[in-house]
Amino acid sequence: MRRVTVGDSLAAARVLTVVPLRHQGWVILRLFCEAARADAHRRKTGRCHPVWGDGTLMTAALRRQPPPEPPLENAAFRAALIAVLGHVGYPQADNAQVAVAGSKLRLTAEVPSPDTWQ
Q1: Sequence-distant (≥ 6) Cβ neighbours of residue 117 within 8 angstroms
Q2: Each residue's pLDDT tens digit, 92-110
Q3: Do residues 110 and 97 make contact, with C-beta atoms less than 8 angstroms apart?
Q4: What stretches of 1-118 show up as alpha helix (H) in DSSP?
Q5: What's the CA gap between 64 and 92, in Å, rounded?
Q6: Which residues make beta-bridge pairs with 104?
Q7: How far apart are CA 76 and CA 53, in angstroms?
Q8: CA-to-CA distance for 45 and 71, rounded, in angstroms?
Q9: pTM, whole model, 2 decimals?
Q10: What 3-state class would DSSP assign to 10?
């Protein structure tokens, strides 16, 4: 996956502001997985991944059409930003794998589903 920038983190935090708290950890890992998979595709083919983009966290986040960026006074946005920054450089987020089966996506057992995330 490409190096994470402040803009990437802000975009991912915008996504999390509309995700229930109990699912946010899973969504963060999913964003990192998609960005890593897209970057691997880009390096192999020289083209952006058709679904996940160019391998940046921002592209993975923006394809979900997040709401506009709230001010930093917004406690939910601050908490989401802290959660994203906490995953930057986290080995499980970087090494988790995403498998593609037709147009449906599934995660390996390494990344729990949102129903089992605690």
Answers
A1: 22, 23, 25, 26
A2: 554 444 443 333 344 333 4
A3: yes
A4: 6-16, 24-45, 57-62, 75-87, 91-95
A5: 22
A6: 101
A7: 27
A8: 39
A9: 0.76
A10: helix
